[in-house]
């Protein structure tokens, strides 16, 4: 089953609890400390453009990359509504291409956990390094093993809204560190009936050392890391880690 096809239609509806404003404010603080107050920034795994639009509103020249046409369709609708001059590209992050280098690359909301092989994660990071300006920043987050094993793994979540509902079943393989999401969507149609759709999503939990090895192999340097929710030190109960890496040579 394809990912983010029918779910794209109601993605923002069910993601209205994500603290995008808080995330963007934090990204802004990191960028401003490096005097990156304008210029080109790439949002890798941009989805429906929630973060892309907010950064464009701050005055950045934004490029959004995602491998789902359906998610990008929603992002384009937002672009036309806001009037922001954003370039959206439908590309696989494992082999994405830009027309030149950018001052920073952002990847939030565990987009990188969809990369299921360490060798491929290293490829992504290598491309990131390739397209960063000298000393440019890579700001990204990743879900932790703790989150998959203790929060998501083998649990079922459901939510009912007037426009749509979902049942989200998780299965986590501890040995492979693979989490499979079986998503059943019930989307309201114009005639007030509901149509059922199915999607399967698969993510990988990486160890901290594996993520460091991906940064090192790309010739980037890890500048800092923190708990993405508290912005404090990471702990054994941290669910998402925010990393800041820097370009240090191709």
From TrEMBL:
Keyword Methyltransferase appears in the UniProt entry: yes
Keyword terms, alphabetized: Methyltransferase, Transferase
One GO biological process term: methylation
InterPro entries linked to this entry: Methyltransf_25, SAM-dependent_MTases_sf
UniProt domain Methyltransferase: residue ranges: 41-136
Gene Ontology MF terms in the entry: methyltransferase activity
UniProt keyword Transferase present: yes
A Pfam family that the UniProt record links to this protein: Methyltransf_25
UniProt xrefs under PANTHER family: TRANS-ACONITATE 2-METHYLTRANSFERASE-RELATED (PTHR43861)
Protein name, per record: Class I SAM-dependent methyltransferase
């Amino acid at each position: 089953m394809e990912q983010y096809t029918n779910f794209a239609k109601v993605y923002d509806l069910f993601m209205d609890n994500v603290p995008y404003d808080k995330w963007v404010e934090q990204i802004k603080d990191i960028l401003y400390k490096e005097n990156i107050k304008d210029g080109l920034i790439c949002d890798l795994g941009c989805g429906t453009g929630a973060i892309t639009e907010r950064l464009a509103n701050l005055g950045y020249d934004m490029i959004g990359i995602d491998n789902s046409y359906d998610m990008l369709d929603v992002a384009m609708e937002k672009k036309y509504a806001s009037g922001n001059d954003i370039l959206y590209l439908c590309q696989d992050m494992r082999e994405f291409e830009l027309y030149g280098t950018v001052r920073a690359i952002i990847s939030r909301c565990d987009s990188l956990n969809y990369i299921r092989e360490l060798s491929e994660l290293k490829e992504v990071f290598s491309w990131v390094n390739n397209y960063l300006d000298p000393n440019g920043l890579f700001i990204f987050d990743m879900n932790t093993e703790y989150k998959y094993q203790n929060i998501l793994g083998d649990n079922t979540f459901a939510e009912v809204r007037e426009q749509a509902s979902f049942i989200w079943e998780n299965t986590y393989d501890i040995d492979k560190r693979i989490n499979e999401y079986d998503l059943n969507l019930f989307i309201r149609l114009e005639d007030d009936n509901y149509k059922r759709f199915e999607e399967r999503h698969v993510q990988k939990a990486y160890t901290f050392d594996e993520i460091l090895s991906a940064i090192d192999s790309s010739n980037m340097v890890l500048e800092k890391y923190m708990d993405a929710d508290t912005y404090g030190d990471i702990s054994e109960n941290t669910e998402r880690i925010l990393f800041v890496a820097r370009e240090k040579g191709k």
